[in-house]
Amino acid sequence: MTLRYLTIPVTAFQQNCSLVWCDETMDAAVIDPGGDLPRLKEAAQKRGLTLKAIWLTHAHIDHAGGTGQLAREQHLPIIGPHPGDQFWIDGLAKQSQMFGFPPAESFTPTRWLADGDTVSIGRQTLNVRHCPGHTPGHVVFHSPAIERAFVGDVLFAGSIGRTDLPGGDQDTLIASIQQRLWPMGDATVFIPGHGPESSFGVERRSNPYVGER
After folding, report:
1. Which of 7, 151, 163, 199 is placed for a possible disulfide with 168 were both Cys, Cβ 3.0 to 4.6 Å?
2. What is the CATH number of the domain that holds 55?
3. Structural domain boundaries enclosing 161
4. Could you give the 3-state DSSP secondary structure of residue 186?
5. Looking at residue 213, what is its pLDDT?
6. pLDDT at residue 1 in the model
7. Residue 48 resides in a domain
8. Residue 173, SS3?
9. Contact assessment for residue 125 and residue 118, using Cβ atoms and an 8 Å cutoff
10. First-to-last C-alpha distance (Å) of the chain
11. For helices 37-46 and 67-74, what crossing angle results, to 10°?
């Protein structure tokens, strides 16, 4: 019995949406359904998964754009992000126009998340860390059991999230990485919101923005 995941890049922004599931119950959550919903539903169906929830790291359009529609169509609860991202949720329609995305349906999270919370799918539980800086309400999902963390746009392989959008702050972001992510352990592999996976150990040693060289 373990947690499995599949990363599916969606939208023109190639955002890493992840299907995560318990291989005993085959219940699944979708992390950051930014768009391309038919692809996500097909991938779940192909693997015999039952979608049970949507988990959001933050509410930028490429991560949250498909949330309202998917929740409505599949009758799914929306879990996260932290309340600090309320203004991004309120502005989804404007974000859609600004970045040329299909109109995003508005939504209200079923459950907001806070630092230290947990989320569960099937018989698997992940820890929630609040990691502001890219957005004020950004959260990260960590599975110690499989040494994986779904970090949205906090950290990338060789880079960090942008901080020039409303609510962003670089000092806050760096503190989030150093105080919340590094303690998860060097061996932990992270799935970023864009681009390839890496490990916290590799980034802690060599990332030009937060490395300890």
Report:
1. 163
2. 3.60.15.10
3. 3-206
4. coil
5. 59
6. 86
7. yes
8. helix
9. yes
10. 39
11. 50
